Known about the structure:
Residues 184-224 form the tRNA pseudouridylate synthase B C-terminal domain. Residues 244-299 form the tRNA pseudouridine synthase II TruB subfamily 1 C-terminal domain. This protein is an alpha+beta fold. The protein folds into three domains: 16-73 and 211-238, Pseudouridine synthase, CATH 3.30.2350.10; 77-208, Pseudouridine synthase, CATH 3.30.2350.10; 243-303, Archaeosine Trna-guanine Transglycosylase, Chain: A, domain 4 (Roll). It has eight helices and 18 strands. A hairpin with a 6-residue loop joins strand 10 and strand 11 (170-177). The chain is elongated and about 75 Å long. The two termini are 23 Å apart.
Amino acid sequence: MSAQRPARAPRLKVDGVVLFDKPSGMSSNGALQTVRRLYWAAKGGHTGTLDPLASGLLPLCLGEATKFSQMLLDADKTYLARVKLGVTTTTGDAEGEVTSTRPVVTDDAQIAEVVARFEGEIDQVPPMYSALKRDGKALYEYAREGVTLERAPRRVTIHRIGCGPLCGDEFDLEVCCSKGTYIRTLAEDIGEVLGCGAHLVGLRRTAIGPFVIDHAVSLEVLESGEQARADALRPADLLASHLPAVPLAPDAAGSFLHGQSVAVPLPPGAVECRVFADGRFLGLGRVDPDGRLAPRRLIASVAGA
């Protein structure tokens, strides 16, 4: 997994997940391509984008692990944001142009009271500077052309929200939310209720589903050497680790890898399972109506594809 390879050297077959601590200023695709280059991996994908301004947890899938990247798309996420009051911008964050300035007349108690109103189910209007598409074109492309389109509100859930004390005209905001939540929009909406406007000056993602930033690895660590990269590479089934594991005997494994359902003992109530044979991860299986385990998504190298 050395990054020091000739430019025309063939890419390696690397299967696994890297819980990457993306630095601010790097795009999600830039992060993916950087990590792919460090591992010299033939294939890679991420589990959903993180704004360039934001830092924090970005799980990256290499090789066969990309088959399971969608398993985090619906996961809840936690963010730590820095909100600046009194200034609004075109993008809702520090990268945009200032659109208004207003005096800040508030205190910690009022901010806490307003922030608490946003807990639970709320409606958000997606920002124009977002990757959502209209007629095959991202909204941010329209925004860069000076075009503003009507956007329907979307229902999202704020599971938990809290704020720190006001420091000058800024305060910290911690949010645990459902998929599809825009923290930029949340900050803007809080600022509007406070009567002074607001935008984000910092954003860090600290958790996705069961994975937390404490388990993530920085770019500096990955660049420090081959052993560090090997230590950071998690198993290909990491994103499916919430599913029960089912071991198969050699005969059953052979049938399973040839696309046949197999009769094996299953955990009570199981619907989908991670399937193993001799300690090797074969892929995912789904329990069919007859109570047999049918292959759903197989690891190509194990299946001989």
